[in-house]
Amino acid sequence: xxxxxxxxxxxxxxxxxxxxxxxxxxxxxxxxxxxxxxxxxxxxxxxxxxxxxxxxxxxxxxxxxxxxxxxxxxxxxxxxxxxxxxxxxxxxxxxxxxxxxxxxxxxxxxxxxxxxxxxxxxxxxxxxxxxxxxxxxxxxxxxxxxxxxxxxxxxxxxxxxxxxxxxxxxx
Length: 171
Hints:
Elements: H1 2-8, H2 18-45, H3 49-60, H4 71-86, H5 91-169
């Protein structure tokens, strides 16, 4: 009831400390930017939306995400197979083997980068959103409820004092 009366402008609202309001605004800003950075980093590391959904489901089911071959590794495999078809002794075959090996190393480095970025960058962001932010939200709701209770008590006290003053005036 207090909340509704405050929204309608019929009840007084106890204002929070300006420094605390600033902290709340900074917390909201941090949460919003963390969510955006997390989502965009996931898109960068895995551009395929269906693969991201699959990885998300594996993560939520606490299962190990199956290892995917990177595009560089797949290209390396094709080049090596082509080199074997052309003959490893031919100039084209030798070139395909060299380039294929380089692509394989690039693909392995990309896989390592994705793994490292996921563990060292995305995990702390997720931990903030799933842990710290939930705690902040819960404490904010508790504070809001306590403030509403305080304001309701203040309103009742004000009404009681007004009724007492009115009773004292009219004997």
